[in-house]
Structures are given as structure tokens and as C-alpha cells.
Specification:
alpha/beta; single chain; 15 strands; three-stranded antiparallel sheet; Arc Repressor Mutant, subunit A; Rossmann fold; 9 helices
């Protein structure tokens, strides 16, 4: 009999190659009873990693068709002054020789110019961040495994083992599609899963969002507010949102926007 992890890996591999797989094909491929295969599919569907359909399963739309949301080249132009200030403040929290994770995003990218000379070890899923860090000869850069999503220039994997399980970091710097009383939110299932995996590798979560993200709605919860150690935003944050953050016991850093940008 195949172990559950082996069965799940096989199911996801078949779906990644073809987008859809029938229950009959899975029954023939997996060394398990039909009831066990159904439980595997239900477990993966419950975790948001696949979608059950009549006669089989398919990958979530985010994986099959690409990530939703604004393309990176458009998103980076929005609130540029706030993002630049947030990135600089985030970099100031790093210490020399530290191991950190920087999740892909237009705000986290703004950290990179300020990391020169710290001799950090950085795990990132963003090719934009890799490119920005390449000139820093003493910054060591690592990429997890996965597929390239071109519009965001980000590497993501539907698999549990994307290589990040071997890494430990003192801090992870992440962005979000929105922030509210429920916590940090993202619009894509595969992005949500990747962020959760990376967060599990870090001792502290630092969220980088411009103040407009507190007014965003929709999406799925990545983690609750109390799981975040620090939120860095701009001084445009509303008083009610600042109170919400502080009530959750989260450190709030609100920085003035860089003038002349955005």
C-alpha cells in the first residue's frame, strides 16, 4: 500500500501535468482502495489544493489559469511612495547575518535596496526580488521549487514539499491582498498555501501593506491578526484600523510616504 503522502504527491503531480484527472485513472494508478482514494480527494479538496468535480478532480482555477489579481507591473505603480517608505522601514528591522524570508510582492520588493551590506540569507519566491538582490554579492539567495507565474514573476508550488521545509528563518516579510478583523487575506488558493508554508518556517511574521489594504475586501484568510508580530504601513491608516491592530496585540509601525512617488 502507498502511504498517504505518496498518494497525495501522485494525485497532485497528475493534476499539475493535465489539470484534470478522472477517478478511474486514480483508482488504476494508486495502490489503494477506492474508498481510500475518495478520502484522499476529500482531504485535498478540504485543504483547497484541488477541486472535486463529477468523475474526478481538477486543479483550482488559480493554478490552472494563473493567479488572479493585478499584474505585478501594474501593482508596483500603485501607492509607490507608501511602499518605498514601508520597504525601507522593514529593512531596518533586519540584523547582520540574519536568515529571513521575503514573500513576493510589490511592497516587499522595496526592502531590497536597503539590505546591502547585511550579509543576509534570503529565501524568496519572487524573481523580481532575486534580480534586485543579485548585485549584492554577500547576500545569499534561495528559491523554493515550483511553477513560474509570469504576470507576477513568482514561483509557487501546489505541493507540500517545495524545498522550504529545510529552511528556518528569524523573520518572514509578507504582503497581503487585504487586512481586516479576520486577519491577513489573499485572493488565490495557491498563493495562500505557499504563504502558510513559508510562515511556518519563520519565528516572526512581519506584514507590509500600504493603508489602502485595510479598505480591501474579499479573499481568504491566510492567518489571523494575532499570528502577526508586526504590521508596517503608511501614516494614511485610519484610526479605527490602527486600534484594531493594537487590540490584537500586534506592533504597528506607520511611516510617512516618500514624497514624489505614487
Amino acid at each position: 500500500m502507498m502511504h498517504a503522502e505518496d498518494r497525495e504527491r501522485t494525485i497532485l503531480a497528475m493534476l499539475e501535468q493535465r489539470g484534470f484527472v478522472s477517478f478511474r485513472e486514480l483508482d488504476e494508478r494508486l495502490i489503494a482502495s477506492p474508498a481510500t482514494v475518495r478520502r484522499d480527494l476529500e482531504r485535498l479538496a478540504g485543504a483547497g489544493r484541488i477541486v472535486r468535480v463529477h468523475g474526478g478532480a481538477k486543479m483550482p482555477d488559480a493554478v490552472a489559469a494563473g493567479l488572479t489579481g493585478v499584474p505585478f507591473h501594474e501593482n508596483i505603480k500603485k501607492n509607490a511612495g507608501a511602499k518605498a517608505a514601508i520597504g525601507k522601514a522593514a529593512a531596518a528591522l533586519c540584523t547582520a547575518g540574519e536568515s529571513i524570508i521575503i514573500d513576493g510582492g510589490s511592497t516587499t520588493l522595496q526592502m531590497c535596496p536597503h539590505l546591502e551590506g547585511l550579509e543576509l540569507q534570503v529565501v524568496t519566491n519572487s524573481l523580481h526580488i532575486v534580480s534586485a538582490l543579485l548585485p549584492q554579492l554577500k547576500t545569499r539567495v534561495y528559491l523554493p521549487a515550483g511553477s513560474l507565474f509570469r504576470e507576477q514573476n513568482i514561483v509557487l508550488s501546489p505541493f507540500e514539499d517545495d524545498g522550504s521545509s529545510h529552511y528556518r528563518a528569524s523573520k518572514i516579510f509578507v504582503g497581503a491582498a487585504g487586512v481586516g478583523p479576520q486577519g491577513l487575506m489573499q485572493t488565490d488558493v495557491i498563493l495562500l498555501q505557499a504563504e502558510r508554508r513559508l510562515m511556518a518556517r519563520a519565528a516572526s511574521v512581519i506584514l507590509l501593506v500600504d493603508s489602502s489594504k485595510f479598505r480591501a475586501s474579499g479573499g481568504q484568510v491566510v492567518c489571523d491578526l494575532k499570528s502577526i508580530g508586526t504590521i508596517i504601513t503608511d501614516d494614511g491608516i485610519a484610526d479605527k484600523d490602527a486600534r484594531m491592530v493594537k487590540r490584537a496585540g500586534v506592533r504597528l509601525i506607520a511611516v510617512p510616504s516618500v514624497k514624489g512617488l505614487g
